Amino acid sequence: MWDGNPVRLSLLHMLPGVAEERGVALVPLLAQAGLATDERFVGADVVARGQLCSLLRQFARRSGEPTVGLDLAAAANPRQLGAAGWALFSGRTLRECLVALSRQMPDLQGGVALRLEERNGTASWRHSFSDSDREHARVLNEGIAAFMLRAVTRIAGIGSEQAGVHFPHRRQGPARVYEDKLGARVTFGSGDGIALTFDAAWLDRPSLLFDAATPFDPGPRSAAAGLDQGIWRDDAALLAMIHRLVASAAMSGALSLVDTARSLGVSPRTLQRRLSGLDTSFEREVDTWRHAQARLHLTGDTLSIGSVARTLGYGHPSHFIRAFRRWEGRTPRAFRVAIHGELTEAR
């Protein structure tokens, strides 16, 4: 079975560094996987997922480390994963983070099914590929599971030993090797994808990484803590906090005055009155934030128009295009072409 679903090559942004550390030449492996020998592992370059799986299997063989996917995950930087990487750490709770990841996943790779299930106090986060052979995708699946385990436990502030990891393929080494590297319970050999299991109570705990300066590191403050420090009395600080909350909610497509007010610890009516005193409103601040972010994203070429729309919380690209026409008098594509032309002339 050949998996031709599109995936950003930046999913393996850490591969060149890990290959260099292990003394493995990548050029022959790229050629064997049908990839250009000068491929970049950053930006928006897209290849077939089957090619990535082949590349990773060859890399595991050449490095002599069957569980190298776990090591690649440890070297991953979420900021290199585009909108999906931003989304994973955007939520105010673990549940919001996982919902946001699911919404933004099409920007990173296609043919992915994500499910979050809750039963008898246990949550199961499931990830599976369509058109993929479980053994062929083994190294990629192990890397994704290890990366997600690290993210989930850091967001919830829980030790990995309290979670379980399931792989659909046969193990390639002693179980203790997997358990030592992951620090979690591990099972193998059934199902159509990977699964993380953990206490369902984790889902609604405040994220320790919300508003963090760096993914995987605790943020400097939370919205509630900010209010204690006087943000409610500081006009500029309040608006900045609202924009951060809007950015978080947009990733999951759940922009709401009610949710924003709840995060600030006030009633929706109180928040509206406070904003009215600043001659603005929640709707106007959302619009202002969306306009600024749209210009920022369109200046680059990493995100497609559809991906930009999703990161701004729009349910459909057409809604974003109409809003952008209102802001700029032209379509997002026309704006991007014009900006790139100006940048080229400036050089």
So, the CATH homologous superfamily of the largest domain?
Homeodomain-like
Say what the CATH topology of the largest domain is: Arc Repressor Mutant, subunit A
* Major sheet attributes: 5 strands, mixed
Spatial separation of the terminal alpha carbons: 47 Å
Number of domains: 3
Instruction: Please write the CATH class name of the largest domain.
Output: Mainly Alpha
Mean pLDDT: 90
Overall number of strands: 7
Q: What is the second-level CATH architecture of the largest domain?
A: Orthogonal Bundle
Q: Structural class of the helix and strand makeup? A: alpha+beta
Task: Name the helicity range.
Answer: 40-55%
Q: Provide the gyration radius in Å.
A: 22 Å
User: What count of helical segments does DSSP give?
Assistant: 16
Strand percentage, roughly?
5-15%
- Within the largest sheet, what's the order of strands? 3-4-7-5-6
- Report low-confidence residues grouped into runs of 5 or more: 221-229
**Helix/strand order, N-terminal first:** EHHEHHHHEEHEHEEHHHHHHHH
Instruction: Identify the overall geometry.
Output: globular
InterPro entries: AraC-type_N (IPR032687), Homeodomain-like_sf (IPR009057), HTH_AraC (IPR018060), Tscrpt_reg_AraC-type_HTH (IPR020449)
Protein name: Helix-turn-helix protein
GO cellular component, one term: cytosol
Keywords: DNA-binding, Transcription, Transcription regulation
Give a brief description.
With 347 residues, the protein is an alpha+beta fold.
Notes on the protein architecture:
It is a single chain. With 347 residues, this protein is an alpha+beta fold. The chain has three domains: 6-65, no CATH class; 82-204; 223-346, Homeodomain-like (Arc Repressor Mutant, subunit A), CATH 1.10.10. Helix content is 50%, strand content 11%. Helix 4 (68-74) runs parallel beside helix 7 (138-156) and helix 14 (305-311) crosses helix 15. The longest helix has 19 residues, at 138-156.
